Amino acid sequence: NAGVTQTPKFRVLKTGQSMTLLCAQDMNHEYMYWYRQDPGMGLRLIHYSVGEGTTAKGEVPDGYNVSRLKKQNFLLGLESAAPSQTSVYFCASRTSGDSGELFFGEGSRLTVL
Amino acid sequence: GQNIDQPTEMTATEGAIVQINCTYQTSGFNGLFWYQQHAGEAPTFLSYNVLDGLEEKGRFSSFLSRSKGYSYLLLKELQMKDSASYLCAVVDSNYQLIWGAGTKLIIKP
User: Fold this and answer.
1) Which among A42, A104, A106 has CB closest to B99?
2) Contact across the interface for B48 and A45, Cβ inside 8 Å
3) Which residue in A4, B12, B15, B23 has the most C-beta neighbors within 10 A?
């Protein structure tokens, strides 16, 4: 039972390069989220999705784009990476109920030089 | 604005009890989560409170007072493996999770 899987786990980019982080979940969850986590700060929501084909902006969406073409996959794209995007990125998913706990992926550590 | 406050760091002794507090000011309230996060790992679910009172789950208990905007996580019989960060998160009126910065708990022998 894989749960939530993120790829890649680590990546180093140069400023201006683009990349895509892939999140896949096998729990048939409706809701999926992308967060970033920086030292001394709480998890900050970048984008989220409440179902296949739908996406919405979170707290810090600038510089990121997302797509949810299939229910099990949620992609996070950086079109032109900046050093401020150096962070650990977590994908999470949950059921649609109010008390549905979040299940997190292992995280993707991104460094932008 | 919305705000979740937790102590940045706490230290406790193996075998002892520690209480980690969380106070919140959010636009609406639809529940509060506690998550545990070991260094370099993903957060994992510990508890969920939506009604006032104490929820006990083994060595861990979580308390909620909605009128005071306050919760705490109580860890008993501390073990070295409990060294981790503990994250408090509130579900707001839009059913979005608002996260605190986390409390780093250091356990000493």
Assistant:
1) A42
2) no
3) A4
